[in-house]
Design brief:
alpha/beta; Rossmann fold; eight-stranded mixed sheet; 10 helices
Length: about 230
């Protein structure tokens, strides 16, 4: 994507009422007003709040919002030029139950109050295979602790990935922590019992993976100690 196109999308994002782009200072100094108030002040309802972490183009958030009109979906990514497409699609379709937040995921506990979130989707994250990159892996211990804090008791986490490494790493960590793994499979399209929302929604890159017979993995789990 050219720099001119990126700048155009950044400018458009600033005009979209379904996009929130706080500064880092606003997030970390305690003045971010939507923390604890996402349902009331942003979505204007009390429906369940579902986050997609690392939402990319926003395809999963938008499609989940179409499928579940009685839930609120918020796609989160630092790259606003990417989720511009999802935000624009949602506006074109007058969808009121999906929005986008431009921020770094490590700041998530500054952006959401304790027990504010009902579900988390982590879709095709960078597995950060190199050891020195483990601190950026979205299912490491530090991130899991943040998710545990903002999720409600019985809140669900979904991990969908094309990385066998990420799948195995996360499963091992969850088993070691004795968390409640409700479902796990290394090939969701090769399993007749896969959850419908996992196989009925595909991102652009996911469809490309499937064309070359790359397996898509999925884990659904809850935290026992909330």
């Amino acid at each position: 994507m050219g720099s001119k196109n990126k700048l155009k999308r950044f400018r458009e994002n600033e005009t979209f009422d379904n996009v929130v782009q706080p500064t880092r200072a606003e997030v970390t100094d305690g003045t971010f007003s939507l923390k604890g108030n996402w349902k009331k002040d942003f979505f204007k309802n009390e429906n369940p709040l579902v986050l997609e972490l690392g939402c990319g183009k926003g395809e999963y958030s938008v499609n989940l919002a179409r499928k579940y009109p009685n839930k609120n979906f918020l796609g989160i990514d630092i790259k606003g030029a990417r989720f511009w497409r999802g935000a624009k699609t949602a506006l074109e379709e007058s969808m009121k139950n999906v929005g986008f937040l431009r921020t770094q995921i490590e700041l998530i506990n500054f952006l959401f109050a304790e027990n504010e979130v009902d579900e988390l989707w982590i879709t095709f994250p960078d597995p950060q295979i190199k050891y020195k990159r483990t601190k950026h892996r979205l299912t490491n211990q530090e991130f899991l602790d943040k998710y545990r804090l903002i999720l409600k008791p019985e809140g669900i986490v979904h991990l969908k990935t094309d990385s066998e490494f990420m799948h195995g790493y996360t499963l091992g960590l969850l088993h070691g922590l004795d968390e409640d793994i409700e479902y796990a499979h290394h090939d969701v399209y090769g399993n007749s019992h896969s959850p419908e929302e996992v196989i009925s929604i595909q991102t652009f890159y996911e469809s490309q993976y499937l064309e070359v017979d790359k397996k898509i993995t999925y884990i659904r789990f809850k935290f026992r100690n909330k």
